[in-house]
Amino acid sequence: MRSAFHRVCLASAIALATALASRAAAQEAPASEAGGLSEIVVTAQKRSENLQQTPLAVSAITSEMIEQRGIADVSSLTSIAPNLVVGMTGAATANVALFIRGIGESDTVLTADSPVGIYVDGVVLGRTSGAAFDLVDLERIEVLRGPQGTLYGRNTTGGAVNLISKKPGDTFSVEQSLSYGRFDFIQSKTTIDTGEWGDTGLRARATYLHKQRDGYVDNVLRSDSGDPGAYNTDAFRIAVRYDHGGPLRLDYAFDYNDRRGVSIPVQLIAARPDILAYIEASSSLGGEAPQISRKRMSTQRADTDGPVRDKITGHNFVAELDLSDSLTLRSLTGYRTWKNTVVSDQDGNGGLVGLVVDPGILAGGPFVPLGVQPISLFNLSFDRSQKQFTQEVNLLGNIGSSVDFVLGAYYFREVVHDANPTNFTLILPSGAPIEAAPGVFVNSFGVNLATDTVYRHKSRSRALFGQVTGHLTDRLSLTAGLRYTRDDKHLDQTVPFVRQLDRSFDKVNWAVSADYKVNDDIMAYARVATGYKAGGFSARAANDGFEPENLTSYEVGIKSELFDRRLRFNTAVFYTDLKDIQRSQFLAGSGGTISNVVNAGHARYIGVEAEAAAAVTDELTLTANFGYIDRKFLEFDLLDPATDELVDISDSARFFGSASTTLAASAEYRTPLSFGELTARLDYSYRTRVYYTTTALVNPYHEDISDGPVGLLDARLTLSDIEMAGGKLSIAGWVKNVTNEAHQQWGVDFGSLGFAYANYAEPRTWGIELKVSY
What we know:
- The protein is built from 3 helices and 42 strands.
- By secondary structure, the chain is mainly beta.
- It has a single domain, classed as Maltoporin, Chain A (Beta Barrel).
């Protein structure tokens, strides 16, 4: 830690020295209209436009709000939009599961696509595994709710999240921040903006981030830096822009993220009675006693936990050429890589021992005791990589003042590799008590097993699309969009199946909408849109593939700004029809963890969303959002493992990964002082119960691993704009999860292996931050 702290101090000293030498003033963000709410500009429809004039259900927050709310990566987004729920799946530090309007995916296998697209400066992230990397220099976050199949393509049936980075500024500036917090949290962030170099039209911006923290559950077998939830991250982004006022604009950016750490805490919360009796005999046999509890534990004993590493690089190149005053050609090229290695203890217990027998018994061999040996309910490792290339070309223009249009072509290619060895003890009941040691009898025995999953997967997608908006009158506009997509997928697998599979899919998606400006302050819109999630195959599934999901969404909404922009209120009501739902049936057994993925279901979603912001006074601003979804399976066929027959469980099946209700509210108070400005902020978020499996028919701990309701409160106090040596100083203190609410990030039911675990989120954390800008 000392060497890391020295690096932090050195980076800070260099940045401050550069700033003091330049004596340049920092560029300030434009202020909002006096006493009103600031305008928010979004690019949800591939062009810049006012959020309130965009006929879509879209939420957006600016860089100032990102800082005030302490958003560091995608995993922190839950409360920024209604009906948005974000989870972190176990066995890694950067695997994220996003659900919008109840639609999402949690499977970390690299052949599984998420129906919520994540975009970094216009480039889609092919995997949600590894997507929770640090976003070091964000300008804005946009959350598009509902299908975005025409402009954004396949796999956006739930919606899309746009992460937009800051571009180089016109003037020189330097910003340096230092933070310290609970669990020895240390962070340094340095940003240097060069401003324009002479009269060349060139400017650059560079940001470097280092942060580290000990884990938040004490693993007594590891040092603090090796505890669950620990991380040590280095990340930077370099952006170069050319804009000389002519028709050509060029932007290139490179981002790098090296995240080293330990998986989020895994805690054993339930086990079958015979398994519990077997592991409880461990202490009598010379091993450790098991730890199992439904309450969040502060200590654990995990002997095969860590390390985890995610290494991510990204190249982004955008070229824009104005062909005329009304026509612009844009090219967006992206290349990204991700490498991931994981060692993770999936039961939170180390030092367990038990009576073990020869694995030959599973193949009909004799009962051959091997004596008392170390056992593990489940541990795994990953060695994964992904490379992707994307190219998009847009033609944006208008015909007079009556027609706006976007035409485009898109290409995506991805290659992934995955090796996933697992080790576990299969515990089976015995016909009679067995003397495992003198005077110690057990009614079960264990079989130590090792399995693996090894494969290579290629995916290619091509699309042509267009969207046209006709302004029929000053108040009424109609929009229509169309997209043709073709997807090709290839799986080359060696373990546990030896196979090569190829599938191709194509689809035409469309969207139509109408918006009407009731007056200058109120707009109403109606939208019908389709979307599709590509079919494919799962490397863990025994079958040879599954078909696409198809969705149709109907939505009406109102956007309004009232009382001289002191009140902003947006609401939407939607009905979604989702067919051919892809569902995996988890099958854990002596062959390891496999699943069978089929098109099992048909569901409908009826929901309402509301967002409000009010400048109550010049000092006090209140914001809130609310989402509710009434979800129902109309059909859900599942293979009953007891009868080996298909049964319709639509009346009892649960929607996993998302909540029926979300609520968020915040209050921000700003007041000028004689030496600066004081800002006090409170943020509260709430969600109802979340299930992590669909049915108890195949997951006996279905109810046990569910979590909620959960309400979280965060607080922040900032003193800013303090004049200091030609620059400005700000000091902030923050607390997250003020009430120390115990809540989960995810839960896993190992079904026929006979146990379940939960991943618990952070307890109360706090920190202080010092920032200087010039």
